[in-house]
Amino acid sequence: MMPSFRQKVVGFLRQLSNQSENNRNFEDQTPDLQSESFIKRYLSGQEVSKDEPKIVHGRFAQELPSLSLGVVSRPVLVAATGPDGGLTTVNRRQRHLSVSDPDVRFIDLVDDDLQPPSQTGAERFVGETSGSDLDGSKSETKVIPPPPEYAVQTSESAPDINKNAPTMTTSMTQISAQLTPTDESFTTLNPIQKSESVPNASERFHQEVAGVTEWSGAGVSRAYGRSTSLYERHPGTGVPAGEPVADCFAVVARRDSAVLCLADGVNWGVKASLAARSAVHGCVDYLNRAIFNWPITSTTEVFVALLRSFHAAHNLILQEEGLLTTLTAVIVLPLATADRYVACACNVGDSLAYVYSPRHGVREITQGSHDLNRMRDMRDALGALGPVDGQNPELGNLTCSMTEVEPGDIVFLTSDGVSDNLDPVVGKFTGLPNVEAHQRHKLTLLRTEDLLRNGVSGRGPPCSTARDVVSLLIDFVTRLTAAKRKMLEDVELYQDAEGPRSRGKQRARRREVCSKLAMVPGKLDHATVAAYNVGDLVTDAPIEVS
Q1: What is the DSSP letter of 82?
Q2: 379: which residues sit within 8 A by CB, 6+ positions away?
Q3: Residue 343: band (very low, low, confident or very high) from pLDDT cuts 50, 70, 90
Q4: If you classify domain 55-89+181-281+293-480+525-533 with CATH, what class do you get?
Q5: 79 forms bridges with which residues in the sheet?
Q6: One of this protein's Pfam families, by short name (predicted)?
Q7: Which terminus of the chain, N or C, has less C-beta within 10 A?
Q8: Higher pLDDT, 377 or 495
Q9: What is the pLDDT of residue 29?
Q10: Burial code of 201-239, b = ≥16 C-beta within 10 A, e = fewer?
Q11: Is the separation of the CB atoms in 332 and 411 below 8 Å?
């Protein structure tokens, strides 16, 4: 029965009355700024932006300022990967790229005179903005030379690698063999042999994989990672939805530097998980060999290596026949100036990187990969490695980013299962009025900072180690999504008084529940965090074995 005109007018007046009452209640709460949350302080203009280090970003290495780097230690002290063996479960048979192959191109090369590919049937790399100089001319891009074992050389001796990096011709050798790092200044330092292992760790944890011999499952307090599933479990079988976990992480820490890598396979399934593990394996393997086997002098060389590590990651995904995945990699290195460090990041997709500073708060390193002034569709990853279009990736939001960090800062990477649940809209914080896109991003950073400073309870203590950050964020998103899981684990979804429901009845029942799920905070997903404490891993704090 349709409501009468009188009923419509009464209902409209009641809405106006309730709205004005809510506005008065909100205004009555504003005077006591000391008791207000960070949300109200920010929206009322009380949360003043801190004088934090700048974040610069661009699509190519040449678009970013070049900073001089200090001497980097080479022995690996901590190497952690997961879940369930992480990158160690991926086949190591990688395709070698020959420097004599004119069809090999890299996404970091810039050439105005792009030549068509030769008649060998090679497909162009999607998102590639440059090509080989097929006429034999050289690019002026400074790059890192290949190792002596794989460089094309004549009978003459190899060039001096301590000189300026040579210019790049048509291609570069793929680095994929063991090079034992040496560092005379740390010959007395015993690298960590083993840390906490995962239940399904393979025998390859004790073989050389991706340039590292000894891998652990989680790491130590200053270099740590963890993955979990936020999806519900079937009440009958106990099997979690979305298995296996399609995320993968790796943290490789040396005395004064670290490589952090995180991939989030698109959708569910074994192929998505395989893509994530292959991407992390290919990326970490390349970076370990390209960055830490001879001196590097500038951040430009680091970004060249980062971009090429993404090329290696994509190739390994194709080789292993995986599907699509995001990828984010961060390298923390010492600058030439004492006690100063830089975080160089490269990412494609929606896996993000952050810095937590006790002095400056939380800032997102990868903020240049998405438009802060536009509401983001969380169903769109914006980019991915793997066979998106034929054998080509989608590099629409491929971004290089850089920011300076200080000793004591914590650099951490998250999959969207964590970062999306820190969003104020997804978290459904009570009393939150409508916000614009840039305010939503800032509130996400403030929400994260508030968690890391005050904990889930709001009474602290603040996080001081990488393990603290990882454990707190995983605990927070697990608690936030608990109500959603409980609703989906209801036995009545799968059976009634007469016995198990048919698939059709189960789907109909789940559609009824979905309307209620939209009112509950949180997003169900795979959740992964990897973190690293900036500074000297030996002198700043003792290294313990988990």
Answers
A1: E
A2: none
A3: very high
A4: alpha beta
A5: 252
A6: PP2C_2
A7: N
A8: 377
A9: 43
A10: beeebeeebbbbebbbbbbbbbbbbbbbbbbbeeeeeee
A11: yes
